[in-house]
Amino acid sequence: MTTQRCAEPGCPGTIEDGWCDYCGAPAPAPGDGPAGGPAPGVSASSGVSASAGTSAPSVAVARGSSRTSSSRLASSALGSARNRGTGSRATRQVGTSSTRLRGHRLGAGLTTVPSVPVADPADAVMREPEVPEHKRYCPACGAKVGRAHGDAPGRSQGFCPQCGARFDFTPQLAPGDVVGGQYEVAGCLAHGGLGWIYLARDRNVSGRWVVLKGLLNSGDADAYAAAISERQFLAEVEHPLIVEIYNFAMHDDAGYTVMEYVGGLSLKEILTHRRAAAGRVDPLPVDQAIAYVLEVLPAFAYLHDRGLLFCDFKPDNIIQQGDGVKLIDLGGVRRADDYESAIYGTVGFQAPEVAEVGPSVASDVYTIGRTLATLVLDFRGNTSTYVASLPPVAETPVLQRYDSFSRLLAKACAPDPSDRFATVDELRAQLLGVLREVVATDRRPVPGGVHSSASVLFHSPRADVAGRPLRWDELPALRVDEHDPGAAWLAGVAVADPRQRLAALAAAPVPSVEVQLARALAAIEAGLHEAAHETIHEVLAEDPWEWRAAWLEGLDDLAAGDLAGAAAAFNAVYGQVPGELAPKLALAAACEPLGEVGVAEALYVVCARTDANYTPPAAFGLARIRELEDDLDGALAALDQVGSTRGSYVDARLRRARLLAGSGRGLDALADAAASVDAVALAPRDRATLAITVLGAALDVVQEQGPEPGLSVGGVAAEADALRDGLEAAYRGLAALTEGHAERVVLVDRANDVRRWTLR
């Protein structure tokens, strides 16, 4: 039998029973290309509740200010915000059958997460199994029960004083009990909202350890139904990231789910241990928290593809064992079309709309976002003040430091479910991009240095320009969604002239979104801004969450010179795809000439250090801004980021040399300026001009301060006669390269003026 390797980039696993045995990704369907190709229907799945407006603030912000966050810029509204006041309600397009956004690996090869050793299961058995008094609540009305009164201890059995319902928190199984004639109980492992969890050995399968999960309160009809429900759903679920169910056994008229034993620690336990060790709340580093969630997202995709909703996700439900994780506790799982069963959730994690409209893919996305927030924030008030919101960015250092992560949380936890990520595949693609930025921000080197990460939504920047911000047509281009009905037809439209292309596009057999976007782009290229504006707003009228139309709106505004409008549009796109660098680079290109240099610089920094394809244009932007701020060292450091393999390397070295030549920092700086271009192939005229600048400045320094023995500038000794000879030769060399007679005469005259006196 031929072994099928996993198609996910960087994954060493093989396909077994339809799933990768290492990363959990599904086997590619026949005819599918490799994972990570152009984006499918992600186009219609990015919304934001953004404040309306067409102008951006014009007040410059000092570098280093906490007000450099791009979130304060005005932006064009997308999604639900566009619906308000229109008299109609657009229905969001959700879901995708594509698997090409899925990749999988703990840390994604970008960061490391400490391993959690798996201890002997027998050591995990509770010595005194009991439910703490502060966790005892009536199963019927939720009132506090079983609490101590005065000198009288709390009772583990009894009746609720408020509603009269019976409660019983005592374990129903004892060590040595045999359930179903097969599973010998070793003791209690833990207690949860739906029941006691026991450790047992399977007598029929080599004494392997298993988990028995029973009811906490057998008199609770909803809890019993949930237990039965869990058994049914787990029996259907086969995924390497989800705890496996083996059996369902009866004992003394009570039912028990027999499950795979998953050792290790839950993320809640990891947080508890960190707090105990630090003596205070000690959240996880952001990169580690993202790594955990990235690892488990394929399990959510698997469930959603089968019409199942997890419903009650929180840090308790991820267990790390060794270097892997498992999604556990599927007691709240229900079918997406189930409108009758009891809904289980946790305050602070459950989406606000669930009580009225029930759970959905969007509410699962919300729980994922809230879990991420809980892992990285000192989230006091998450069940009260911030039960349905996130703490203000201005009061949360973590969100200030990681702007893209803040944007991602805001979208995942948006109050309107339509404004959230529509699928976990979409969330995962953006979360992976955010992880790259977080690792770069923390200056932990990515393996192999600054790397290039192919986006499934954008191509790379099309130009590196040293002296100005990128134009609209130099910014990254959108990738075509190959799943669009018109994509195949568009591939055959190869007309260079934009007006002719517009005519060809008018004959498209399928008026798909990609065709409309192509029409808008052709109109922008032709300078037909009204036509572009009309097409863009047609797309947004059909789908207010279509961020690609907002991207083209930003390009159109930039082409027309409306910098404020472009900044607003790009800022809105940034909120929809926070893991992408293209909107950040575009927003910086609009903010820089707009005077929002603090925002532009922060965005350029992220782009420059995250992806090698974005480093040169972003580095040039940083150098321009820092030069304006008289930060020479910062400008030089930015230019030094441009690698020697880039075509713009010569421009970076020449710009570096010119900055040093005009710095007034003395002979050492002038020597450094000349050395900056020693190893690059400069145009003869550029080299001659730079030599004149450097040697002329060096001669002025030597005449004022005297020579510096042992130092040379551009191969010329740092003393007056040698510098005069070198400067004379540079002037004559430039004259030889000059065509205009008058200009040549001027250069020769200057050569004669600087020439030192000799006897001949």
Strand count:
17
Structural class based on helices, strands and sheet pairing: alpha+beta
Residues in helices, as a percent range: 25-40%
CATH homologous superfamily title of the largest domain: Tetratricopeptide repeat domain
The description of the largest β-sheet is: 6 strands, antiparallel
Any overview of this molecule?
- The protein has four domains: 36-93 and 456-639, Alpha Horseshoe (Serine Threonine Protein Phosphatase 5, Tetratricopeptide repeat); 106-113 and 287-441, Transferase(Phosphotransferase) domain 1 (Transferase(Phosphotransferase), domain 1); 121-260, Phosphorylase Kinase, domain 1 (2-Layer Sandwich), CATH 3.30.200; 649-754, Alpha Horseshoe (Serine Threonine Protein Phosphatase 5, Tetratricopeptide repeat).
- The chain is elongated.
- The model is unreliable at 33-64 and 445-449 (pLDDT under 50).
- Helix 6 packs antiparallel against helix 8, helix 16 (582-594) packs antiparallel against helix 17 and helix 17 runs antiparallel to helix 18 (615-628).
- It starts with 14 loop residues before the first strand and ends in a 6-residue tail after the last helix.
- The strands form six sheets. The chain has a six-stranded antiparallel beta sheet. The protein has a three-stranded antiparallel beta sheet with strand order 11-13-14.
- The chain is an alpha+beta fold and 760 residues long.
